[in-house]
Amino acid sequence: MSSILLQFHSLSKGERELALRHTNRWKSRDLIIYDRGYPSYGFINEHIKRDVDCLIRVTTASFAIAKNFIAGGKKSLITEMKPNNRHSFKDKDYHKDSFLKVRLIRVDLPGGEVEVLITTLLDSQRYPAKMFRELYFLRWGVETFYNELKNKLKVEHFTGYSQVSIQQDFFCAIFISNLQSVIVNDLTDELVIQNQDKQYNYKVNTNLSYGFLKNRVLELLCEQAPLDKVFQELETLFLKHTIPIRNNRTVERQVGKYRARTRPKVTKNQRDAI
């Protein structure tokens, strides 16, 4: 595999179509990792046609071959995937009798839950089943970034109703996030030195770093203070406020935790500065 690409979480056909807009970025022998909602015959077929591998989490409730796989009790199984006969085959390069060879992987989680992954990586000698739990976990950075956008940068709390207001708020949040990442990356060497002789490695506290940055972004943009001085102050604050990295921690999954979550209410007199 030449590289690994990580795709965002999805639950709808529309988002599969959006994902396929990125095919011009795919390279032969890439591996693209997806969350639930993406697996379908046509979607996986697009990867195989382009010599691009994929790894996707599937639901056992609605994915028949995954349900049968779990019932069989195996850790890994190469099987045939067929298109849904209820869908139209007009303008498709496959028909109702076509099939793809795919591999199903069982992943047992510490809490007793079972996840099923579907992949085009068929070689069990080169890609043993035990490697897939760690491989799929590489998506975790995508999930934590969602948490940053929604809960720390409050990207859903728009300051207006118009398209311009919403786009402005969104791009502002992305700008803050990118700027924070640039500063954190510049502190890599300092963090290595700071972590010497400590029980845990420490990283910058993301939540606090966003707060420090948002309080000073106007100074950076309006040049109200020397840029070098502001950046040095931010780096000092970032290094002073770090948290330990505790590996192999597990948190019990709360199924349906966010289903009852309501959208933030935007009132017409709500105008946050940033």
Automatic annotation (TrEMBL):
InterPro entries (alphabetical): RNaseH-like_sf, Transposase_11
Recorded GO MF terms: DNA binding; transposase activity
GO biological process, one term: DNA transposition
Domain Transposase IS4-like: 20-179
Source domain of life: Bacteria
Listed Pfam families: DDE_Tnp_1
Name assigned to this protein: Transposase
Organism: Pedobacter petrophilus
